[in-house]
Amino acid sequence: MIKRFYLITVSLFLIFGGLRTRAQYELGIPSFAKAEDAKIAYWVIGEGEPLLLVHGFLGRATSWVKHIPTLSKNHQLILVELRDHGYSTNLKDTYNNFEAAADMVAVLDAIGIKSVDAAGFSAGALALLNMAVEHPERLKSIAVIGGMTHFSDKANKIFNNFHLDNIDRNTFINFSNQHEGDTLKMKRLLGYLQDFSEDKKPIFTTSQLKSINTPTLIISGDRDALISVEQAMDMYRSIPNSYLMIFPNTGHSYGPYSELGKNYLMSTILDFISKRWKCPAYCDN
Question: What is the pLDDT of residues 112-138, one digit of tens each?
């Protein structure tokens, strides 16, 4: 029964948490930024104020495709693929969020952009939070969707059951299509999840979060199997200039991939980055 539960959880996370067989339309041939031990694929779409978009772990830049018409009306979109995802390479056999943050800086340097607004989902959110800690001058504001301070015991159990030999056929096909059938890359990505589950150190300490001065919109679901509401609250209490949005009856998959994300979440993010929310006079803090 327990094994079946994990298989179902793995399937739902892979299918709804970041994987799709085909994009609504092709992004075209990417450009590449040279980072340390990696080449990072990116696309620049539209004109206006730059908006950096970072997908979740196991996903691709195509995760944002359905939102391009909305987000590109007044913004120049920069879609990035995390190292070892999609077209991006990784000469190392490890993945960490600090390098992911440095990779985002490499992309901005390649384009010639000093600072951006940004939105990231899950691992993309972690890259942006690391960026806010290590490279705050490169960010104007960040929307972190499904970010976390540590991997819970529940999350680690889920990660430990991500193996190619125990996911259902449809999930395998979706995963394979995402990464052009590159089985070696698929195994590497799933191997990183095992590394995550074995690393017991927090992703962010309280002091790191308190050091973030970038305006931050923290977005989470109250039914997220990977991230508790308490984690979102901890981030909100620790990051000085932050705002918190909790979606009811929502799991980890609500980000760029759901209708909720399309119909409401993106408009809220645009409102946040365009108006630079400020607490009205009657706020307590």
Answer: 999 999 999 999 999 999 999 999 999
Q: CA 162, 166, 171, 177 torsion: positive or negative? A: positive
pLDDT tens across 57-70, in order? Answer: 988 999 898 889 98
C-alpha–C-alpha distance, residues 64 and 271, integer Å: 18
Nearest to 238 by CA among 199, 189, 203, 204: 204
Residue ranges making up the domain that contains 122:
2-275
The whole model's pTM is what? 0.85
Nearest to 69 by CA among 218, 247, 216, 263: 263
In a domain, 158, yes or no: yes
Residue ranges in 112-182 assigned as alpha helix (H): 123-134, 153-160, 169-178
Task: Give me the residues paired with residue 242 across strands.
Answer: 216
Whether residue 282 is contained in a domain is answered as: no
Kindly state the DSSP code that residue 253 receives in the 8-state scheme: G
Contact 11, 158 (CB under 8 A): no
One-letter amino acid at 266 equals M
Residue 280 in domain: no
Q: How confident is the model at residue 21 (pLDDT cuts 50, 70, 90)?
A: very low
Axis crossing angle, helix 183-198 with helix 153-160, rounded to the nearest 10 = 150
CA distances from 200 to 135, 153, 256 (A): 25, 10, 28
CB atoms within 10 A of CB 91: 10
pLDDT at 284 > cutoff 80: no
Q: Which of 212, 69, 184, 226 is nearest to 128 (CA)?
A: 212
Q: Report phi then psi at 141, rounded to 5.
A: -160, 160
Query: Domain of 42: which CATH number?
Result: 3.40.50.1820
Domains contained in the chain, number:
1
pLDDT tens figures, 264-274: 888 899 999 98
Residue at 284 is within a domain: no
